[in-house]
Design a protein that fits this description.
Distance between the termini: 15 Å
Number of helices: 19
Length: 485
């Protein structure tokens, strides 16, 4: 639970400190994007492999390697001498999280008898909610306090005592477990996925600063070729030894294919929103980190409450209509936020943002909690583990893609407005205009998600975890992301 909390906080804590990082470290906006996208990309690329390594070499061993590496990477982030070192350390941190996180619920699954696991999974859900609320607030406080004159660095250094405690407790109390029939690693698949995403994301994040050179378009086109090669290779590998990185037969299930599309596109929307939101509040409105961090609390509370209600009360009664309602409610919240930002201008107050944030949070909560069950409803039991791992992987990839697209949907507008700006108010309005434009894209994406959800089953299965459990005598590490989601 310590490791899960540390990872969840680390994903959210960074955004709120971005202005401080940019000011103190002299990072460019494209480097800022890579500080967040690099973590998501490394995490996504290594997630399934990290889980399989735990199956093969022991989950306790991989957990301890992961948490130790995560703690070391956090120290490197905290003591980074320049933005390039910070980006590289964040990528390492994401890779270590990919070793650590898949083991968390696998270890729980192997340690506790079935009748006790419900309590543990409930505790895990509470940790997820606590991480979502704590991350931005903790990031704001640590940045605001400027401990020992370290500016933003304590947001990473705080992981050191937590990680060391996790290492000591983990080595002492966790019981080692392995899968009796572990799958082989598909390193070629991992390499092709990573290469394809890098060829797509690097030009997106750097292209604006470099004037959109020809090589960027060539690289993005080449990414499609690499991903096509991945599909061909995975198909051949599945026939040869039955251990591909991506189980392509799953995409023959209509609900799964549509659900993966929903998860990917949803990740894109969240990647765009959270980064743009922070930049708008702190660069556009000139708010201090603590004020920006406190503004997000109604959103986090709304997500947690709606998520619990959707799973326990609404989905069993109304099925996929709840998820579709969530997409529409979130789109309404986004549109309301756009209107308020335009109406109140730079004088907008946190309490005025509370309404659209609560509406957005309710919409998001209605989607995130039941979506995994809806996607897995019609997946054959023997593939439940690998399917759930793929769900979290594509969400992280979508998140990284969304962070890359910020260059296009946000900074493209900001740059145009800043070219005409001559004073602080005009510069603030440039960020406000960019925020409204980016949120317009987020609202459009939610409309696409609403339509894709028609391919989900009307009544999602409610005991996918049990189905996955029946499929194999020992837990598959890929199941963890589904439960986390």
């Amino acid at each position: 639970m310590t490791a899960a909390f540390m990872d969840l906080v680390d994903v959210t804590i960074v955004n709120i400190a971005i202005p401080s990082i940019r000011r103190d470290a002299g990072a460019t906006f494209s480097q800022i994007q890579w500080i967040t996208a690099g973590y998501a990309l490394a995490f996504a690329a290594g997630l399934i492999t990290g889980g399989r390594l735990g199956d093969i070499h022991g989950r306790k061993r991989l957990f301890l390697i992961g948490i130790g590496g995560f703690t070391l990477a956090s120290a490197l982030c905290g003591f980074a001498a320049n933005p390039e070192m910070l980006v590289a350390s964040r990528i390492l941190q994401g890779a270590m999280a990919a070793l650590m996180v898949p083991q968390v619920l696998s270890i729980v699954h192997a340690t506790f008898p079935a009748h006790e696991r419900g309590k543990v999974f409930g505790l895990f859900g509470a940790v997820v909610g606590l991480g979502a609320v704590t991350g931005p607030l903790l990031g704001a406080l640590l940045t605001e306090w400027n401990l020992f004159g370290l500016e933003w660095r304590p947001i990473f250094l705080i992981n050191l005592p937590v990680g060391i405690a996790g290492l000591i407790l983990g080595s002492r109390y966790i019981t080692e477990s392995k899968a009796p029939k572990a799958l082989k690693l598909d390193l070629v698949g991992v390499a092709l996925v990573t290469l394809g995403l890098l060829m797509l994301l690097y030009p997106l994040t750097r292209g604006r600063e470099l004037g959109w050179p020809l090589w960027g378009y060539v690289s993005m086109a080449g990414a499609l070729v690499v991903l096509a090669a991945l599909v061909a290779y995975e198909r051949r590998k599945a026939g040869r030894d039955g251990s591909p990185l991506v189980e392509l037969s799953l995409f023959k299930v209509k609900s799964f294919a549509a659900g993966i599309a929903v998860q990917t596109v949803f990740g894109v929307a969240l990647g765009i929103f959270f980064l743009v939101w922070t930049l708008y509040m702190q660069f556009g409105l000139g708010w201090r980190p603590l004020k920006a961090g406190l503004t997000g609390i109604p959103f986090s509370i709304a997500v947690s409450m709606a998520a619990g209600m959707s799973v326990q009360k609404l989905v069993p009664r109304f099925g996929r209509k709840v998820l579709q309602a969530g997409a529409l409610v979130m789109a309404i919240g986004v549109l309301l936020y756009i209107w308020e930002s335009a109406h109140y201008g730079l004088s907008i107050a946190p309490w005025q943002m509370a309404l659209p944030l609560v509406v957005m949070g309710v919409g998001m909560g209605l989607i995130v909690a039941p979506l995994t069950d809806a996607i897995l409803s019609e997946v054959p039991r023997e593939h439940a583990g690998s399917a759930s791992g793929l769900i979290n992987t594509v969400q992280q990839m979508g998140n990284a893609l969304g962070l890359g697209l910020v260059s296009v949907v946000f900074f493209g507008v900001v740059d145009d407005r800043l070219a005409e700006a001559t004073e602080r108010t005009a510069a603030g309005m440039a960020f406000a205009d960019g925020f409204q434009h980016a949120l317009g894209w987020v609202a459009a994406v939610m409309g696409v998600i609403f339509l894709l959800m028609f391919a989900l089953p009307k009544r999602p299965a409610q005991h996918i975890e049990g189905a996955a459990e029946d499929a194999s005598p020992s837990p598959t590490p890929e199941k963890e992301p589904a439960l986390a989601g």
